[in-house]
């Protein structure tokens, strides 16, 4: 680490000689000459000094208590320094005599008497460091820290900094051990910074000295994501933003005081909180600016003071503002009824002032009580967690109050621990990790990657989970990385790191990743990948398919796969395999669940055929239209893949199975537009003889024309007493029929049912990069919803 460090040690870190040695060791091993150290009074010394002052104020004998304090400090000196402690012992004896005199006389300088606690600590630690070979001197903060006379003393920055630099220049290459807790006013009188004020001394002095960072060494390891005394699985936070730390402090968290954090805003300085008992353990870093890495933290107070008022709402808001001006903004406040909460310490500090201020604003204090506690969730983006937070509140909880960096509620004290537990588990605990493996990185695959990179963050928030792209599988290579692949920058990594595919090697690697769930998105048209679905499910993956092969595969395969999915509790969705993003399966599902009975499904499930038949008007040959469509990229590379009707047949089979029918592909009658003689020719030869398509089409078109009907290519399935009839082929329909009014290129799905005797039509683009990627995403989200809600 570079730059000057400041280490601060509190009373509990300096409670006995062993502690002093531990502290000296930390200063030597965690810093270098030129560092600053700030100390507070050893153990309970400040309390002892305050007791003495109280006895004296009441005219009671204090000699016994003073002797006790001397014994404690003397033991510290002799056990820490041995014989070499004589000069300090002499000084201590003189100080005690001086304190005795001051206590007996009036007026007493109470602040100056309290300052001895820190003075003794600074001297003793400096002496110990020097004896251990790390030259050190003690520095009385009153020699440089100039404070004003306001209730909460404010520093004169410029003059204090200048004076400090002078003091430090006089002590080159030494560790300087400075007293915490106080400074002096312009008249040189001691000004205290308030109980536990030496943390504030530390950050203030660090800022004045332009230190690179401050470490507060204390008796806890740092800041946890919930009170470790309440929850055994509370986790230490590696880092926190300054705003989050400040919010925690404002909600009464005891680890850091809000005031301590103020100087960190003036100079961009990091603050570490760590344990002097376990100096090599992990700790918490508070950073001037937040990083996206910080996790939400649950904070709680077993009791707060809850005040209820009667009066006008604007006056109540004025009262809250007044509290804010006093540095005591309410922990929570409500308009209906008028109510606010303060920490019990704040309420003690205010005493009768709150009721008086309320009365002056025309408000009546109805009651105050402390049978409620506080539970808060501190986060950089509280809005994102508001829904989950609210869902966890019982009926006895007050509604959630929103702060800049927190959500807060008040609950009966006995419910605090249970609520901390559930909020910790739901909002602050470890996030569920969902891995995504993408098979197929072509046109639609890359569209999905774009889509995912835009939505990843939002999904993480919505599901309070961590979605990670962990694999990309191409036809010849694959890339698997458990730590995640950035979907916005995958190409470079794929080019450099992808390995050659060997069977299902990628699956073996995907199956052992340390993730809660893994979902495979199959955006290929690969029959061989579909054949491996059973193994993929057995390995624990969920499936989303745009690939039609499995859904329209042999019935035995399909049913076996369904059985396996239900045994393994895995999900498989294939919405994108039929009609791309059109809500076809949602509708079937919804009709089924609302007690409807579907009697027929028909439609045009091919954008290519939809376009061809919309344009075909008999004036030109059909084959010319096919070549035009091919040149515009509207057909498959081999147009026979469209013209054979196979693809529509597969889609109809998938729909039939979704309706619960047991059907095989061969049971769907198929009328191909490709004459048998052309079916198996090489593409070139087929294209050379493409006019052979025309006679059949011409005849069909003439016949339709003669009957006053329109010619279309459609799929249809009907269910009645006679059984199931399914067919894909040419149809003649009235010009008013939905098939005849389909915009060129769109797909159409027409359902007839008990509730929809005139038909329910779903129509729109049934293919395309964006809509298919969106359909895949929608299925993925549907699986997440089942897994995570
Ligand atoms: N010694 C003072 C106190 O006990 C200051 C401090 O410890 O931070 O309040
Ligand atoms: Mg669809």
From TrEMBL:
Its EC number is 2.7.2.4, 1.1.1.3. Residues 440-572 form the Aspartate/homoserine dehydrogenase NAD-binding domain. Pathway: Amino-acid biosynthesis; L-threonine biosynthesis; L-threonine from L-aspartate: step 3/5; Amino-acid biosynthesis; L-threonine biosynthesis; L-threonine from L-aspartate: step 1/5; Amino-acid biosynthesis; L-methionine biosynthesis via de novo pathway; L-homoserine from L-aspartate: step 3/3; Amino-acid biosynthesis; L-lysine biosynthesis via DAP pathway; (S)-tetrahydrodipicolinate from L-aspartate: step 1/4. Residues 6-266 form the Aspartate/glutamate/uridylate kinase domain. Residues 583-781 form the Homoserine dehydrogenase catalytic domain. Keywords: Amino-acid biosynthesis, ATP-binding, Kinase, Methionine biosynthesis, NADP, Nucleotide-binding, Oxidoreductase, Threonine biosynthesis, Transferase. It catalyses: L-homoserine + NADP(+) = L-aspartate 4-semialdehyde + NADPH + H(+); L-aspartate + ATP = 4-phospho-L-aspartate + ADP; L-homoserine + NAD(+) = L-aspartate 4-semialdehyde + NADH + H(+). Pfam families: AA_kinase (PF00696), Homoserine_dh (PF00742), NAD_binding_3 (PF03447). Its cofactor is a metal cation. The keyword Oxidoreductase applies. GO terms for biological process: homoserine biosynthetic process; lysine biosynthetic process via diaminopimelate; methionine biosynthetic process; threonine biosynthetic process. The keyword Kinase applies. GO terms for molecular function: aspartate kinase activity; ATP binding; homoserine dehydrogenase activity; NADP binding. In the C-terminal section; belongs to the homoserine dehydrogenase family. In the N-terminal section; belongs to the aspartokinase family. Homotetramer. This is Bifunctional aspartokinase/homoserine dehydrogenase. The gene is metL.
């Amino acid at each position: 680490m570079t730059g000057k460090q400041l280490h601060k040690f509190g009373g509990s870190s300096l409670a006995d000689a062993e502690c002093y040695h531990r502290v000296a060791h930390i200063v030597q091993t965690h810093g270098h000459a030129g560092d600053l150290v700030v100390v507070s009074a050893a153990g309970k010394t400040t309390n002892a000094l305050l007791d003495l002052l109280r006895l004296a104020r009441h005219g009671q004998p204090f000699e016994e208590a003073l002797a006790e304090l001397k014994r404690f400090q003397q033991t510290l000196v002799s056990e820490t320094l041995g014989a070499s402690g004589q000069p300090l012992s002499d000084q201590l004896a003189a100080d005690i005599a001086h304190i005795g005199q001051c206590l007996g006389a009036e007026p007493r300088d109470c602040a100056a008497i309290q300052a001895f606690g820190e003075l003794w600590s600074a001297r003793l630690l400096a002496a110990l460091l020097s004896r251990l070979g790390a030259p050190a001197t003690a520095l009385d903060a009153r020699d440089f820290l100039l404070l004003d006379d306001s209730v909460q003393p404010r520093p004169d920055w410029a003059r204090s900094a200048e004076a400090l630099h002078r003091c430090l220049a006089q002590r080159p290459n030494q560790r300087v051990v400075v007293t915490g807790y106080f400074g002096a006013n312009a008249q040189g009188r001691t000004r205290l910074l308030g109980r536990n004020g030496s943390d504030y001394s530390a950050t203030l002095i660090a800022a004045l000295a332009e230190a690179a960072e401050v470490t507060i060494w204390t008796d806890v390891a740092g800041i946890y994501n919930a009170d470790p005394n309440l929850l055994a699985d509370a986790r230490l936070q590696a880092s926190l933003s300054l705003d989050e730390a400040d919010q925690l402090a404002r909600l009464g968290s005891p680890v850091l005081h809000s005031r301590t954090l103020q100087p960190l805003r003036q100079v961009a300085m990091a603050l570490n909180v760590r344990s002097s008992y376990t100096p090599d353990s992990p700790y918490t870093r508070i950073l001037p600016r937040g990083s996206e890495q910080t996790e939400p933290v649950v904070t709680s107070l077993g009791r707060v003071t809850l005040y209820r008022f009667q009066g006008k709402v604007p006056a109540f808001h004025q009262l809250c503002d007044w509290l804010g001006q006093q540095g005591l903004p309410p922990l929570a406040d409500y308009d209906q009824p008028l109510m606010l909460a303060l920490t019990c310490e704040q309420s003690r500090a205010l005493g009768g002032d709150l009721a008086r201020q309320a009365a002056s604003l025309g408000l009546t204090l109805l009651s105050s009580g402390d049978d409620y506690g506080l539970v808060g969730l501190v986060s950089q983006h509280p809005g994102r967690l508001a829904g989950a937070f609210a869902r966890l509140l019982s009926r006895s909880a007050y509604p959630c109050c929103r702060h800049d960096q927190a959500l807060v509620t008040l609950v009966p004290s006995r419910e605090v621990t249970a609520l901390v537990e559930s909020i910790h588990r739901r909002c602050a605990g470890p996030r569920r990790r969902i891995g995504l493996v993408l098979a197929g990185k072509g046109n639609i695959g890359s569209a999905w990657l774009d889509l995912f990179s835009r939505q990843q963050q939002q999904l993480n928030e919505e599901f309070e989970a961590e979605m990670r792209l962990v694999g990309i599988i191409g036809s010849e290579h694959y890339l698997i990385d458990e730590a995640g692949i950035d979907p916005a920058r995958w190409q470079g990594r794929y080019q450099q790191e992808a390995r050659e595919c060997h069977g299902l090697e990628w699956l073996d690697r995907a199956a052992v990743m340390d993730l809660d769930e893994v979902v495979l998105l199959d955006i290929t048209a690969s029959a061989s990948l579909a054949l491996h679905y059973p193994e993929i499910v057995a390995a624990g993956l969920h499936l989303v398919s745009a690939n039609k092969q499995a859904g329209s595969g042999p019935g035995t395969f399909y049913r076996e796969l369904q059985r396996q999915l239900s045994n393994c509790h895995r999900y498989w969705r294939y919405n994108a395999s039929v009609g791309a993003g059109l809500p076809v399966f949602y509708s079937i599902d919804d009709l089924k669940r609302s007690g409807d009975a579907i009697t027929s499904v028909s439609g045009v499930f091919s954008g290519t055929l939809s376009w061809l038949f919309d344009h075909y008007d008999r004036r030109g040959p059909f084959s010319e239209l096919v070549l035009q469509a091919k040149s515009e990229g509207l057909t498959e590379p081999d147009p026979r893949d469209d013209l054979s009707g196979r693809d529509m047949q597969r889609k109809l089979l998938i729909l039939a199975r979704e309706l619960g029918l047991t059907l095989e592909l061969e049971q769907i009658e198929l009328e191909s537009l490709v004459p048998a003689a052309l079916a198996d020719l090489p593409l070139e030869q087929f294209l050379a003889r493409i006019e052979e398509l025309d006679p059949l089409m011409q005849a069909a078109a003439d016949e339709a024309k003669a009957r006053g009907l329109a010619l279309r290519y459609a799929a249809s399935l009907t269910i009645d007493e006679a059984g199931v009839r399914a067919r894909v082929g040419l149809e003649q329909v009235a010009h008013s029929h939905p098939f005849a009014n389909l915009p060129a290129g769109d797909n159409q799905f027409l359902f007839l049912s008990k509730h929809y005797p005139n038909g329910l039509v779903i129509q729109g683009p049934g293919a395309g990069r964006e809509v298919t990627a969106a359909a895949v995403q929608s299925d993925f989200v549907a699986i997440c919803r089942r897994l995570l809600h």
